[in-house]
Batch of 2 targets.
Target 1
Amino acid sequence: MAAASFLLSPRVTLPLRRGSRLLVSCSASSSSSSSDAAGGMGFQGRVGFLGLGIMGAPMASNLIKAGCDITVWNRTKSKCDPLLSLGAKFESSPARVSSSCDVTFAMLADPESAFEVACGANGAAEGMAPGKGYVDVSTVDDATSKLIGKRITSTGASFLEAPVSGSKKPAEDGLLIFLTAGDESLYKRVAPLLDVMGKSRFYLGDVGNGAVMKLVVNMVMGSMMVSFAEGLLLSEKVGLDPNTVVEVISQGAINAPMFSLKGPSMVKAAYPTAFPLKHQQKDLRLALALAESVSQPIPTAAAANELYKVAKSLGLADQDFSAVIEALKAKVQSSQH
Ligand SMILES: NC(=O)C1=CN([C@@H]2O[C@H](COP(=O)(O)OP(=O)(O)OC[C@H]3O[C@@H](n4cnc5c(N)ncnc54)[C@H](OP(=O)(O)O)[C@@H]3O)[C@@H](O)[C@H]2O)C=CC1
Ligand SMILES: O=CCCC(=O)O
């Protein structure tokens, strides 16, 4: 493939795999999650939110606090209660949410649940119609996103994929990064809502480009975490204080917020869940399939994926993904016996 050509700001174009084009535009928002009232926010209409887990709940909460008219649904109904006490309305199925709202967001666990909630029985597609929009912010593969998009647009509604970079705290603080692709007019229409929930947004062109961007980012993150865990354990083995290793890393060229944030608790073998380990393993699995589809070797990510699988088998699926360090500890123990 020819080298990518970049046209600098405000829009960047470059060749994309499989002959399609990737259109990138980035806007940094000066958003705050709490300052804008609905009227000043620039979005008129009712907003649905499906999926109120670690990420969905604070995202929906920020929309309510910004003055939006929000209707929520979650498979486990009790998770709606905190949002209802903030003023959200409740509907009993995704279809009822989407039929009562102008734009519906979905933040689901994985490709299977994202598809089911959008396209299954009583799914959001059943309530869609021309003039409405569906914004899927879950992390899924491009094929699933395209299937969901096809079903939604078959009703005459518009579809935008918008997976997010950033975890529990950025979701609470309205500082997510949106990786959007799909219907550009829907992107523009929901931009004020994205700006309540996030600090920046990228528009990447065709449906699928947001999904694959997210998988590339999380592939890198998953491997970085494994490498960091190896460093912490090695430092301990050779008699160094791992807390000092965290401090040294934080001052150098390989500093990443993730290391400073998670390092101290990893040293104490504590893994309070921000990004569940099962989701990181899902993202590596999807990244591996993506790489295979274009014959791109990603051996480091493949090795990292194996460790996350071991961690899952140790019962750590719902812990933070930093608990992958426990899989390395288990390897040491098994090699000593
Ligand atoms: N946590 C993080 O740091 C980040 C996560 N992501 C991605 O965002 C998505 C959500 O993550 P997160 O909030 O952490 O995950 P959670 O596991 O906390 O929440 C998952 C949500 O999906 C719902 N769900 C799961 N299976 C089904 C199903 N079969 N049918 C209907 N609903 C279902 C859950 O409902 P119920 O409550 O009933 O279980 C819950 O609302 C994932 O794709 C993840 O990869 C992206 C960026 C950061
Ligand atoms: O998908 C999860 C991303 C977590 C993060 O960006 O910190």
Target 2
Amino acid sequence: MIRSALSYPSKKNLVLQCLRRMSSLVSTSVSEVHPGVAHVTMHSPPVNSLSLSFCQELSQNLQVIHKDKSIDIILLQSDIPGIFSAGLDIKEFTQPKERLMEFWTAFQQLYIDLYGASQTTIACMEGSAPAAGCMLALSCDYRVMTSNTKAKIGLNESLLGIAAPPWLAQQMMDTVGSRVAELSLWRGTLYAPEQALAIGLVDELHENPRERALELAVAEFQKIPRQARAASKTLTRQKRLKHFHQERQADLEHFVNFITQDAVQTQLRGYLQQLAAKKNKK
Ligand SMILES: CCCCCCCC/C=C\C=C\CC(=O)SCCNC(=O)CCNC(=O)[C@H](O)C(C)(C)COP(=O)(O)OP(=O)(O)OC[C@H]1O[C@@H](n2cnc3c(N)ncnc32)[C@H](O)[C@@H]1OP(=O)(O)O
């Protein structure tokens, strides 16, 4: 579905038009909302879970925006009320090995494309962001979250009987510090907005994250020279990305070996049943 949020009468932008055409097929849309500022909107009901195709599409859109020199700020948001992203699509974990490899490779690529974006990126979270949903937010440069206490954010992988991949755990450590990350990871804590703000997992709470993110982009971030923003990002992220590329193949093998263990598969099936039971109780 195309979101025609091109509310600012900017010059014709062929790249964005092309993205909109691609996006009409699947679950993300791209629109320029202000000169230099693009919304990337996730809309894969019911919960924006990251399936293979969703990861690939989001990556593809980000790669096209990266090449578009007219865009220097990306606002990542969801149009599903109460949800930013539910993280990886758990049903993908029960697929055959070839598909698992393709899936994890696409997820790795999404991390590279978002964490490694040269543009400034802002996560506008109007709802929950567990696990890989939190990864999307952690990969952005700035996080604005709803103040609605129903929303939760964090790395809850341990509650599924799995662990976050090392590079995601590292993102958490880089953001909230080692000790808080360590406790969060083994407890699988999902934080309410005020708690997330208190530990530095998000940067701001606002009742309207989209409005606030656009205000920040235009009134604050665009006033900082673009090349300086990009160079500052390189300072803090280049080392992590280099390490990630070196470890990428090992990470893929590690994931497949881990996720296909009988004990892990049993845990995951149990977790999916819990989700279904919770829904039936509603
Ligand atoms: C030693 C080191 C080893 C390292 C090895 C590395 C291994 C790493 C492996 C994996 C990493 C994983 C990262 C992840 O992202 S795992 C995913 C974690 N996500 C979650 O736990 C979120 C679960 N979902 C929820 O909590 C809720 O759904 C919520 C997002 C809060 C929304 O709640 P609500 O609005 O009430 O919606 P429902 O719960 O009713 O759900 C609606 C339907 O959506 C389905 N659903 C929800 N989440 C997922 C998901 N992540 N994947 C697939 N499907 C999901 C849910 O079952 C409902 O489906 P249906 O309508 O068919 O019943």
